[in-house]
Amino acid sequence: MDTPTSGIPSALGPTSEGIPRRIRKAKVTEVVTKPGVAETAAESEPQFHFSLRPQEIARHLGRFVIGQTEAKKVLSVALCDHFQHVRLTESGQSVPFYQKQNVLLLGPTGVGKTHLIRSAAELIGVPFVKADATKFSETGYVGGDVDDLIRDLYRRSGNNIRKAEHGIVYLDEVDKLATRDAGAGRDVSGRGVQTNLLKLMEDAEVPLVSPNDVTGQLQAAMSTMRGGVPTKETLNTRHILFIVSGAFSGMDALVRRRLLGDLNTGRAARLAAASTDDLISQTATADLIAYGLEPEFIGRLPVRVACHGLDEDDLFDVLRKSESSLIHQYVRAFSAYGIDVEFRDDSLRALASLAAREGTGARGLMTICERVFRDFKFRLPSSGVRRFLVNEALVQDPSAALKRLLGTARKR
Ligand SMILES: Nc1ncnc2c1ncn2[C@@H]1O[C@H](COP(=O)(O)OP(=O)(O)O)[C@@H](O)[C@H]1O
Ligand SMILES: [Mg+2]
């Protein structure tokens, strides 16, 4: 590839770059599923051998997620703490007064909150479930629903209780559980869901078969009647790590108001100039309560970190540097029809600039790319075009570029 192009390889897929050799090597007796994490087969043996260090996790996250340095740091430390704790409890040691390092991630939409957690969960190979808090809001006081999260975790772990009991639950859109906006009709159910989650985050026994699952209940009863080995029927949530996130739009105004309130000197002007990112990163417990979350709920989320918005330069890097860049997806889609596409850096810059105006973080890249390449994806597979170059001109005027491209293909 020559210099003006992005350097994005067309042969794709994650590399093992960045994972130190030490943690890639597995002992012969272990079945390694993820770097640094080995699983043992027997139920009686420790379920995880974890050798990753915080900086190694952060480096891994850096392959996929651009920016968000603070969130990477905080998450890496929380995950390592989680595993060290798991290791101790697995080895039968009692760990008095351990406070779970549950994490609250704040930040605008499309800046990598979910992407961070997903990339981390893939690396460490613990059972992991993700759900939107809004999914539970309608059911209000029916606690069964949040318990389903834990049952999902159990299924994800291949019905292995011990593994599931050390898994990670990721709950997105927790800001929607806030109750300050009583007029929105979410107030009552939001609080109910927070209360139910609270119990899970603390120490609850969740039945493996939902009380609402009649078939499941019957099957369990039949199995016991047939003399099946009585199995443990509940799953304890004491050691499950909870990570929650939300956009918390309007939080900056609450933070600003609070800071102005305890202002003593002429810092008001500086505060007036503070960016949304600055303000969000100063979110305190009082602000989360003012936003409408229950103090007990926030109290179970001791680790808090804000993700910053993505500007044009960040979006350019998301396209150019991230191993999960959307560009790879486009290269793959065209190559499925035998078409080689090469992206020049000026095209990535133009895409980033258009996406930045959307105000939806990296999601804006998807919107813009879809719009720019829609007709290319429709027309090119049935044309004689075998390769094309994406440059700034193509991004600015896709239909003219497509017309030119099809014209030259026809003449050949
Ligand atoms: N910081 C980032 N670095 C790389 N890709 C990102 C980043 N933020 C978002 N993306 C891309 O945008 C998509 C949507 O981001 P997501 O993590 O779901 O946003 P949210 O912060 O709303 O959870 C991701 O799947 C990923 O492809
Ligand atoms: Mg998300």
Summary tags:
single chain, 412 residues, alpha/beta, Rossmann fold, Helicase, Ruva Protein, domain 3, 2 domains, 5-stranded parallel sheet, 3-stranded antiparallel sheet, 20 helices, 49% helix, globular, disordered N terminus, binds adenosine-5'-diphosphate, binds magnesium ion
Q: Care to describe what's here?
A:
- It is a single chain.
- The protein has 412 residues and is α/β, with parallel strands linked by helices.
- It folds into two domains: 21-248 and 283-306, Rossmann fold (3-Layer(aba) Sandwich), CATH 3.40.50.300; 312-411, Helicase, Ruva Protein, domain 3, CATH 1.10.8.60.
- The protein has 20 helices and twelve strands.
- The strands form four sheets. Strands 5-6-9-4-10 form a five-stranded parallel beta sheet, sandwiched between helices.
- Strand 1 and strand 2 (37-39) form a beta hairpin.
- Helix 2 crosses helix 3 (69-90), helix 10 packs across helix 13 and helix 17 (345-358) crosses helix 18.
- The model is unreliable at 1-43, 140-144 and 182-186 (pLDDT under 50).
- Bound molecules: adenosine-5'-diphosphate (ADP) and magnesium ion.
- Adenosine-5'-diphosphate binds at residues 65-68, 109-115, 310, 318, 322, 324, 361-363.
- Adenosine-5'-diphosphate (ADP) binds next to helix 4.
